[in-house]
Specification:
The protein starts with 23 loop residues before the first helix and ends in a 7-residue tail after the last helix. The protein contains 14 helices and no strands. The chain has a domain of 109 residues. The protein is globular. Helix content is 78%, strand content 0%. The chain is mostly helical.
Length: 386
């Protein structure tokens, strides 16, 4: 029995659809953020050289800044005057080394190039080369390399390419010097302006991180230059005592090898030993190899720790990984800047971990797990009873 009211049909009633919380503005914002992130990755990927030159200029500016501060501590109160004196001293030192060492170095390099075929023939006549030729066919490969269709006959294109690389290298050096000089004059003002925009409760932390990174990088660069100078001087004197020809360029090469951590000194030492073997015989080669081995032990275990005692403290594995990564990204320049960049990153990471401990009210130093185990009531609260 139906009542007077009409029975409602659920199928005919309009369905209420909830309003979507994702608006057009939200979609456009997300798409813009994704596109901006991809554009940033693309820009960074294609600006590796520019970023590398900027980092090199910043490291050079940090090294020069230490000299500027030293002059100011000696009584040169005006900063522009101190910067000008520092640049005059640096360029004067470079010019002095150029006029004293470059002519002799160029002459010895020219002699080495002129007598290179003689040394190659001497190496071919050695027992070690005959042993390697019998097993790997070195003679055939060298003959193929020097044939009419080989690479050695196509000297015009490599020469032009080498000239272009030299010009590019000169332009790169000038660019780095100009950037470093501008950083000396205006870098401090830029950093102070950025710190002024930070919140007061964060400004002290930022200043502490920048100060630690500045001291660490400056100490590393000055120590590295000192080690390279010691290496070049001792290697040149040792080769000169052995009467190995071309001792000056070889000594400079050995010093430059110290600029590349872990692998540079070893590679330079192998080259020095081979040149001594080819020019002076087995005895000179063996003595040079012995000297390189002993000096590397002295540099790695005595000189290096003394120089870097108050500066960068990196785990050797972390240092090796950093050198490999930056060398893959930026070549030789990347290998040179790997250690200070990784050292600065280590300082930032330690500060972030310190900030995490502060937020969690954990001890700021020492092993957290051990201290919590010893004093559990200090760090953990008991649950309240209902």
């Amino acid at each position: 029995m139906e009542s007077g009211e009409q029975r409602r049909d659920p199928a005919r009633e309009p369905v209420s659809v909830p309003r979507s919380q994702v608006t057009t503005k939200t979609v456009l914002t997300i798409c813009s953020a994704v596109l901006g992130f991809l554009a940033l990755i693309y820009l960074l990927w294609h600006s590796v050289l520019t970023l590398t030159l900027t980092v090199v200029a910043a490291l050079l500016a940090v090294a020069l800044q230490h000299a500027v501060e030293r002059l100011q501590s000696w009584g040169v109160t005006r900063r522009p005057v101190a910067i000008g004196l520092t640049l005059v001293l640096v360029f004067g030192l470079i010019a002095g080394l150029f006029f004293l060492l470059i002519p002799l170095t160029v002459e010895q390099v020219r002699q080495l190039v002129d007598r290179l075929p003689e040394y190659v023939e001497r190496v071919r006549a050695s027992a070690a080369f005959r042993w390697a030729d019998a097993r790997m066919g070195l003679e055939e490969r060298l003959s193929r390399l020097g044939g009419s269709n080989g690479l050695l006959q196509k000297a015009t294109e490599p020469a032009l390419r080498a000239l272009g690389n030299v010009l590019k290298g000169v332009g790169t050096v000038i660019t780095v010097l100009v950037l470093a000089i501008f950083m000396l004059f205006y870098g401090g003002r830029l950093v102070r302006g950025l710190l002024a925009e930070a919140l007061p409760e964060h400004r002290e932390r930022y200043e502490r991180v920048l100060g630690k990174a500045y001291r660490s990088v400056g100490g590393y660069l000055s120590g590295l230059a000192f080690i390279a100078l010691i290496n070049a001087t001792l290697a040149s004197l040792f080769l000169a005592i052995l009467r190995v020809p071309y001792f000056l360029p070889l000594g400079i090469l050995s010093g430059l090898g110290s600029l590349i951590p872990l692998v540079g000194a070893t590679a330079a030492g192998v080259l020095l030993s081979l040149v001594a073997l080819a020019t002076g015989g087995v005895s000179d080669g063996a003595l040079t190899a012995l000297y390189i081995t002993l000096y590397q032990q002295f540099e790695n275990h005595v000189l290096g720790p003394l120089v870097y005692k108050r500066t960068v403290k990196l785990n050797p594995l972390v240092m090796l990984l950093g050198v490999i990564l930056f060398a893959d990204l930026a070549g030789l320049v990347g290998a040179l800047i790997a250690v200070p960049v990784v050292g600065a990153g280590q300082i930032v990471l330690r500060e972030l971990l310190l900030l995490r401990r502060e937020h969690l009210h954990l001890p700021l130093t020492g092993d957290v797990a051990e201290q919590v185990r010893r004093e559990p009531r200090r760090f953990w609260r008991r649950p309240r009873r209902a």
